[in-house]
Design a protein that fits this description.
0% strand
Amino acid sequence: MNNLAMIADAEKFLAQYLHGRYQATITPAVAQRLAEITMDPKTVALAAPGVAGK
């Protein structure tokens, strides 16, 4: 299901910038998963140097 949600969002993004089409309707399960994995970039904080991966 993760792949379907990411593909649906990528399809919409590419359609916007490449002036193409995308499937506007998606299944409720895909819509729910997309909402779960979508994050506002403004809320992301970088880890201190040397902390990542520990």
